[in-house]
Amino acid sequence: MKDYAWISLLAGCLAGICETIVGFPFDTVKTRLQAASKDGVEGLTYRGPWDCVVSKFKTEGILGFYRGVTPPLVQEALGVAFLYGARDWLREHLNATLQNPPALVLSCCLIGLGESIIYCPLDHLKARLQVACVSSEDEDVRLLELGGSNPDKMVADAGPEKEDPKARSESLGVIECAKEILRANGWRGLYLGWPIQVAKEMLGNVALFSTYDLVLSFFGAADMNGPAHGHPVGESWLAIWPAGSLAGMAYYTVNYPLDAIKTRLQTDSLIQPKYRGSADCVWKVTQHELGFFELYRGLSMCLARAIPGCAVQFFVFELVFRTFFRSS
């Protein structure tokens, strides 16, 4: 298996790109729901996921759901390649399978640590772009003043009736967004929320791969001790679809509160931030701003995304892996 690490990297890269194309509109709605509500980004208020979808479509059309898609395309191409490549390498060297839970948990945590280094700055850019970055006529007020204490100098892109007539809203590109973050906080600003990201990826990976392997084993679709070492074999390929969907749903469910807190931190104002850092954000959000169930606002969009998105991701990965594995 160790001779085919490059196959896992290639298959993971293609799988990540396909999943992003399928699932990104769901993520856009999720992010706007997380950033909305009291003490969130002012001006973003929705009655629920469907209201958010309708409002977004009316104001920006279908392309609006893909605003900020560039960072996650890069993120998923690199991150998912690393995810699957590292998983297969650790599975081979540590026997990180369901039959060896400590090794499985350790490998998932190691992978999560590596993923967070790739994901955090790209997640930060994506979040700010998704909740609509704007500018003001005031030259001293920089772009990306999201969730600040001066709503007269901030416009949230949630509909024409909520716009400040004194400001003009505009879509920011990824480069401009990055420049504003760097201007405000330097390179460390790109990694705002990194401790939360690490915990999120570690916890999510344990749920993702445990569920995927468990469902495959239930359907008899994978032989952990066989030559494919856990990859689906024979005619049991249909099991990839429910296994991928359920694995994705488990991933989002267990780490969603951390993702919600991270979103609020990464969409905080760059000019007058409400949170002093990750720990301060966790404390304020959980103690003063949101109840436990409110931390799951927007989860339905992630679960809806997981059904097609994660199924497509695992299927593309296994398809590409099997194709190259056979020909090698």
TrEMBL record:
- In Swiss-Prot or TrEMBL terms, this protein is called Mitochondrial substrate carrier family protein
Q: Name one GO cellular component term.
A: mitochondrial membrane
UniProt GO MF annotations? transmembrane transporter activity
Tree of life domain: Eukaryota
Q: Which family does it belong to?
A: Belongs to the mitochondrial carrier (TC 2.A.29) family.
Subcellular compartments: Mitochondrion membrane
The protein's topology relative to the membrane is: Multi-pass membrane protein
State the Solcar repeat positions. Answer: 3-93, 103-218, 235-323
Pfam families on file: Mito_carr
PANTHER family (alphabetical): MITOCHONDRIAL BASIC AMINO ACIDS TRANSPORTER-RELATED, SLC (SOLUTE CARRIER) HOMOLOG
Which keywords annotate this record? Membrane, Mitochondrion, Repeat, Transmembrane, Transmembrane helix, Transport
- Whether Ion transport counts among this entry's keywords is no
Q: Which Gene3D superfamilies match?
A: Mitochondrial carrier domain
